[in-house]
């Protein structure tokens, strides 16, 4: 049966070649969009690692007096002012807890770092937080602990907190607590004191990344001060508090700039900007698929009317309507399978060659299944009406020809 | 002859309405997407007020400072622009402004965020803002560090309601400015002029920007003619060799003069180092062609089917001596007529599409309109699309054997 159908398809290879190309092209386009969609959905289900509820952000813009003169002195003055400001923020009855950090969730800035570890390059995102950062953002630690004030008092090593992914990357199945992460060019050793569930700074749709936190002390430190405060306000605190808070901060440091906003607001715009391209491409691909389906429907319709003689002859020789129907649909399935096989061959190169290694094989496979399902579904749908038309062909009509 | 083809074309279109619908759907959808893309690009790069002289302007938006251990890229600093970029050969005017940044204000307890741009006085001479009230501030204001501001229409509405704004005070990030002018809104996809509020650079809280070589500022050069661009670029490169470095860790600085198109090309290029406007255009064209691929195959498929349906007509014409070429011509003309009808539909559909994008949150103060340039793109695209999807089916049709065609049996 299959061989026979294959022969029928092969006999009309010129006409079918165009359909094959069309199915191949639509599959590729659909696959690309589905891949991004599935990737987002997959990421969405991973733990975020922090909570943004009632969390506000204060962005601080230090206006330095000069760039050339004694940067150490400037930094010390800045650190002292930052400590005063943070204390002032904590004193507000509206504020539950407050902390300073370098890179806040949903901000545009990133801070990446990397080093050679056991002969290979390890890349990770880097951040600094004070003693209360984990509490303010409600970050979960799966092992060990977050920084404490005791860590600030000059110990012989620099404590760091890493996320599970980085722990796996560096130490495999070994217990990461107490392990030493030493950079080759760095004289002070870094020691892991805690493991975070995760910290996905760019939010729900972003991919999983390795992450490292270092202790920010708002004192003498190498590598700069964090220039943001995060604070968790008490339930029921309204936007009116923003003005009050900004006013207080401005009065304390008149030459500095302050921006206060709820992180919720930044979350909305970040997610919106991640979804907009997907939505635009999704709509375009949707229309393309409708267009292709309609075109396919037209072509098949035309095919059936053109093959009246052949179909009529089959009916006259005793084929049932169901058999004719099955023939039309299975021919179509053979053609689309051919096109889709080419498509699978093309897209399977990505996971095999590890071109984009941050997308997991599960995501590749799921989106492959989804797009195959959609294309098969649409082609079968397009074949239904022409198939039905073919069953209406009267044997006598066909035999009347010529 | 052509008249006949046109007549036949319309008859054929009306004969099988479903097919005509499929074709028109495909054509108009494809053209709407391409025309919307063309309209967006046109609004980003073509000449619109206030950038009425943008064929003669070139910007200095990018420096790369490097030392032994670091490299830093970003906007140049005021010190670099002020100290080394003035009086370039072929330059008529030179302005310095900083890239816009959000500032918070509280109007009757309500928080509003506006985009603030700090500029010098020349900025208003190079760009042609449409003033609704008052006038721009001048270099004199910049020199005296006067707290004056030009605001746009939307900001006037937010702060002062429907009334006049001239002479009133506006509070931005805790500082008070006196409003001296109100301009029409400028959309945020025009990066050079865009802002809600413009104030003199010298009103900055700290004066450290005056000597900084890196950070936050953009230079805007108005040349006598576009022919001066190469000389300006070359002179800038050579002047950068004599820059006195004042930051530890850096020993070299490079700056580039770029047109807006070149800036965009640099920003989307993978290494973000140099932008080639020609490559950007080529990439855009390739993307448009790739996008047209699927609709074209689709249309070819439909067209091939439709010809087969008309095989007896072709047979008759061939039997009476029509050449293959005249048949090809006829079919291509028919297809172009079809795409032009689709193109007309597409133009009609582009209006609501642009209106939809305009009122979405994608852009601030978007003012997207159809204009004759976009119309011409659309017309050209429709012609091109018609040719692309018509030639292969026409060639296939012309090869039909008359006897076979007359019988109506084709493979």
Provide a descriptive summary of the structure in words.
The complex is a heterodimer of chains A (402) and B (411). Helix content of chain A is 53%, strand content 16%. By secondary structure, chain A is of the alpha+beta class. Chain A folds into 2 domains: 2-45 and 275-400, no CATH class; 63-255, no CATH class. In chain A, helix 1 (2-11) packs across helix 10, helix 2 crosses helix 10 (321-347) and helix 8 packs parallel to helix 12 (361-391). By secondary structure, chain B is an alpha+beta fold. Chain B folds into 2 domains: 2-47 and 279-407, no CATH class; 71-248, no CATH class. In chain B, helix 2 runs antiparallel to helix 9 (277-309) and helix 2 crosses helix 11 (324-359). Chain B is elongated. The two termini of chain B are 30 Å apart. The model of chain B has no long low-confidence stretch (mean pLDDT 88). At the A-B interface, helix 2, helix 7, strand 11 and helix 8 of A face helix 2, strand 4 and helix 9 of B.
- Unreliable parts of chain B: none
The SSE order of chain B reads: HHEEHEEEHEHEHEEEEHEHHHHHH
Structural class of chain A: alpha+beta
Percentage of β-strand residues of chain A: 15-25%
> What does the radius of gyration of chain A come to?
32 Å
Residue-averaged pLDDT of chain A: 86
Instruction: Give the helix/strand class of chain B.
Output: alpha+beta
What's the number of extended β-strand segments of chain B? 12
Please give the count of helices of chain B. Answer: 13
Distance between the termini of chain B: 30 Å
State the separation between the terminal residues of chain A, measured CA to CA: 30 Å
Key features of this structure:
heterodimer, A: 402 residues, alpha+beta, 2 domains, seven-stranded mixed sheet, four-stranded antiparallel sheet, elongated, B: 411 residues, five-stranded antiparallel sheet
